[in-house]
Amino acid sequence: MKRRDFLAAGTLAMATAMVSPQLFAATKDKPLQVLALVFDDYETLDLHGPVEMIGHMKNVQIKLVGAKSIIRSYQGPKVVTDISTDSVTPCDLFIVPGGLGTRKLVEDEELMTWLRKQVSVSEKVFSICTGSALLARAGILDGINATTNKMAYQWVTGLARQVNWQPRARWVDDGKFLTSSGVSAGTDAALFYVSQLRGEVEARRIERLTEYHWNHDAKNDPYAVS
Amino acid sequence: MKRRDFLAAGTLAMATAMVSPQLFAATKDKPLQVLALVFDDYETLDLHGPVEMIGHMKNVQIKLVGAKSIIRSYQGPKVVTDISTDSVTPCDLFIVPGGLGTRKLVEDEELMTWLRKQVSVSEKVFSICTGSALLARAGILDGINATTNKMAYQWVTGLARQVNWQPRARWVDDGKFLTSSGVSAGTDAALFYVSQLRGEVEARRIERLTEYHWNHDAKNDPYAVS
């Protein structure tokens, strides 16, 4: 099977077949290090859906990184950052949520530079919703199969034509880069990541624990852009 | 139709028929005041799922209330409280999430006293997951139709036998009290609240905006206790 077909298929069966021995090994020695970017007017569920699912794996540390100590979500509640964007932090997973705040941030050259450096020390990068706009604008997704929020599809895809944007995908996994569709798609993609990293049994355990209904098929995208 | 049958039915059609003129009026004059309790080891999605959905309505203010200024979720990331539990705050909606932290908190008599007072100045009270354990233990749900996390059903229901616990319900709406099943059920119940308050069109707008798949039938409970 060609690599492109493999990526396009994106079924759970394939996901579990793709468990990475390197990433899996990280769980034996030290906690899985997860870093999530936050900025004012980030979208609440973009961040906290994945945090919920990934945070239920054993031996995981999730930290927030941002330009200041307190960050306000679009919906109002505020989070505290653990790490500053003054430096970069090697991690197993780097999460980039979206939200209204990305509209301004795509013009922030300092952030673009930091993003490129942070991605270079991250084992895997996971964007949710318009988080992909930040990565795309920084040139990080050039030549990569990726998706984004379908409600903001024209805006995001217009920022970087060199990305192989996928109009029909709940999420797209292309090696180092996992990009999800809008808001709640991030929660489904997070369980895909769990299954990829630690197997489907673990993903199903967390689905049950959170009384969730996991849309586990990347091709099942009810909001696809036709 | 008898009141009990009406409550047991819990369909969307009924939900929209139940739009409260009082609550609806609140949107015309001042922002809808939403207050959410947070405590260490609260469950991330219990809080942030509802915050996501409710926070997309127009003219809403969501504030966090807690015993200290910084609160750590079970999954790690920290939030900042806006208001202290030293006093009570009149509000339109009071949200009580669950999580591992409730296991200790059910023994906290000071919190129980505060909860009773806070509920008395709240127009509507919405618990998610084991958040209902706190309300039940405080005697607030006595005689009320309610539900809770199905993974912790024996523990929660054992705390207060005077509650009319419902073993099969994604959520239960009983007048002032809306109680949801575990974790992700809170997100579905939050959209029910939106539909009750501002109509189904608004709930469907937010569902689409967040690329969500709303389980809009309270009777559709895949994790029911048989």
From TrEMBL, chains A, B:
Residues 1-25 form the signal peptide. The keyword Secreted does not apply. Keywords: Signal. CDD domains: GATase1_PfpI_2. The keyword DNA damage does not apply. It holds the Pfam family DJ-1_PfpI. Residues 33-191 form the DJ-1/PfpI domain. This is DJ-1/PfpI family protein.
